[in-house]
What we know:
The structure is a single chain. By secondary structure, this protein is an alpha/beta fold. It has two domains: about 5-55 and about 345-450, Alpha-Beta Complex (Aspartate Aminotransferase, domain 1); about 65-340, Aspartate Aminotransferase, domain 2. The protein has 15 helices and 18 strands. The chain has helices at about 5-10, 20, 50-55, 65-75, 85-100, 110-130, 150-155, 160, 205-215, 240-250, 305, 330-340, 345-360, 400-410, 430-450; strands spanning about 30-35, 35-40, 45-50, 105-110, 135-140, 170-175, 220, 225, 235, 255, 280-285, 295-300, 370-375, 375-385, 390, 410, 415, 420. The strands form four sheets. The protein has a seven-stranded mixed sheet with strand order 4-12-11-10-7-5-6, sandwiched between helices. Helix 5 (about 85-100) crosses helix 12. The two termini are about 40 Å apart.
Amino acid sequence: MHKLAALDQQFVWHPFTQMRDWLASEPIVIESGHGAILRDVQGREYIDANSSIWTNLHGHQNRAITRAIGGQLKKIAHSSALGLANEPAALIAQQLCEKARLPKVFFSDDGSTAMEAALKLAYEFARRARGVKKPRFLSLHGAYHGDTVGGVSLGHIDLFHKAYAGLLFKTDRVMAPYCYRCPYNRAKPERADARTYRKCNWECVGQVEAAFKKRKYSALVVEPLIQGAAGMIPQPPGWLRSVSEIVRAHGAQLIADEVMTGFKRASNQIIASHAEGAQPDFVALAKGLTGGYLPMAATLTTQEVFDAFLGSYDEFKTFFHGHSFTGNQLGAAAGLASLKLLENEKPRAQVERAMTENAKALWNLDHIGDIRQVGAVMGIELVKNWRTRQPFKLVERAGARICEAMARRGVLTRPIGNVIVVMPPFCATPRQVERIYNALAESVLSELRGRES
């Protein structure tokens, strides 16, 4: 075993990882990366097929971002945002506000903290400006909005969240538009994205309307266009626009968790909500904000919300919330470089097209139940037999086994249960994208053959 692998197993506790399994074999230790390629300490190369957990937009060692960080390091890496301003934070704030069509931004560290800030702001705004004594929030079945206490309270994945129920405040949930497994979808399975052949009466929208009629909610919280940790669950076109209109009609606010979907990952828009013509009251951004190079997040909101926290010193209306590295110069400099790179649509569009084309052959495999693509995001759901949609039990580790087999073939990604995620950096070449799907197909054939129900 490599000495670094041994040190890791001795001292490091990894996120969302069963450490008994981790300790059972030698882990891959990443040493370097370039473009869409990662290299380990053994000299092996892998395609980064999930952009280092959905963060890396432009590839590793991108010259423009590296240069921006290096240039900022020659000035200063970080100074406090508590009572001080700085140049790159002010510049990126202006750009983010223009792109989100919202006038104010609060910086934090990651997606969880961006959502925590949005939740606290929405909660206190409802109390101060709208006289709501106990604001309530509505989110979707399978929702995941981070691992802070507020974020977990908004989440509805029992595997992740149930253990912490005693720490949480109550939120309500409504059905997600999961066309492939929707109980109202009368269509029989076909070899296509379930959104394209569904037969329903938009019950998923009707249930949002019914929830707002039954109870007064301060806000609806959604991941626009596609739910990530729920299993890459995409929303059929028109869903977000329809529910945002319901939210507005009931005087509530829309909180958009764009931690994964923003920065042209799920659409050709910086803000994914805009692809549906929806304008949120809050937008939470992270992951791709710095191109995946440094931890930084942002929560954008309206002037009305901002004004609710204005007052004289002795009124104590201040937003008493913050982070040590809020608005740090290195992250802001990286973010400015990343936004500049996103002005060129060609790399992202090329990757999206290559994903679409290469995924077509997967429909020939009996264990592929649904292929769901939104922009440059794809989830491939594994089933025992596509004709019955019968899922693998989680204990069978179908998704994990496929990803382990893909790693042996030089492709790295991570499953969400029985869903394989494909989300390469925008710099990935057509040949690299083809290799991802070839490795996936070969792994399904080798690992799941003969496991039909």
